[in-house]
Amino acid sequence: MRAEGGTAMASVPTANEDRQRAHAREAPVQIYARIAGVLYLITLVAGGFGEFYVPSALIVSGDATATAKNIIASDSLLRLGFASYLVEAMCDIGLTLFLYLLLRPVRQDLALLAAFFRLVSTAVFAVAELFYFAPSFILGRPGSLQSFSPDQLNALALLSLRFYGYGGGIFMVFYGVPSVLLGYLIFRSGYLPRFLGVLLALSGVAFVIRNFLLVLAPAFASSLLLLPAPLAALAMTVWLLVWGVDVPRWEETAARAVYRDLSG
Question: Which domain holds residue 198?
Answer without folding.
Answer: 12-263
